[in-house]
Amino acid sequence: MKKIMTMLLLGIALVASGCKGSAEEIVQPSNFDFLFEDTSCGPTPTYVLDTKKDTLIHNPIFGTESYTIPLQLTNDQMDSIYQKIVEIGFFSYPAIYVVPDKEIRGYQSPSSTTQMTGTIGAKSHTVTWTDEIFTELPYMNEKNLRELALLILNMIWSHPNYQQLPQPQGGCA
């Protein structure tokens, strides 16, 4: 009987310790996709990544030719993006995000405009923002959107299909 009680208490302790502090993992829905557009200079988006079609349209800043290539993100990459979207509350951002005037300390030039549409099944949300603002302290909503854009851009830039494209030199004028 003593042995049974000891094993029972040990089992309860193991179960309880396994539950302590374990954050529930956010699982990416199988019907999650997004359309990401980054416009670095001028009116034409430099990058248009469509994860539903697994394509990237690249319009080089100084190029005369547009390139459409297959670009499929890995499940881990899609998970990372979905985790970031959930973390920052992307679906609760306004359709056009603007930093409040009281947070602005300066502007950068040239600016870039980013638009992202996240879709989970029939639920879709688009946010457009301009990354031109300097804030005294990192304004969290601006910082979060910038981190999301950089996460996606780094995945594009490191993808083998993108790296095979001609890379014109120079930046915005």
Question: Overview of this structure, please?
Answer:
The protein has 173 residues and is an alpha+beta fold. It has four helices and seven strands; from the N terminus they run H-E-E-E-E-H-E-E-E-H-H. It has helices spanning 2-19, 75-88, 140-158, 160-163; strands at residues 32-39, 47-50, 55-58, 67-70, 96-97, 104-120, 123-135. Helix 2 (75-88) packs antiparallel against helix 3.
Summarize the entry for a quick read.
By secondary structure, the protein is α+β, with helices and mostly antiparallel strands.
**Mean of all residue-level pLDDT scores:** 79
Strand residue percentage: 25-35%
- Ends distance: 82 Å
Q: Give me the count of strands.
A: 7
Helical percentage: 25-40%
Low-confidence stretches at least 5 residues in length (pLDDT < 50)? Answer: 1-22
| Cross-sheet strand order for the largest sheet | 4-3-2-1-6-7-5
- The run of helices and strands is HEEEEHEEEHH
- CA radius of gyration: 22 Å
Shape: globular
Largest sheet: 7 strands, mixed
**Category from helices, strands and their pairing:** alpha+beta
Number of helices: 4
What labels describe this entry?
4 helices; 32% helix; seven-stranded mixed β-sheet; globular; disordered N terminus; 173 residues
Q: How are the SSEs placed, and which strands pair?
A:
Blueprint: H1 2-19, E1 32-39, E2 47-50, E3 55-58, E4 67-70, H2 75-88, E5 96-97, E6 104-120, E7 123-135, H3 140-158, H4 160-163
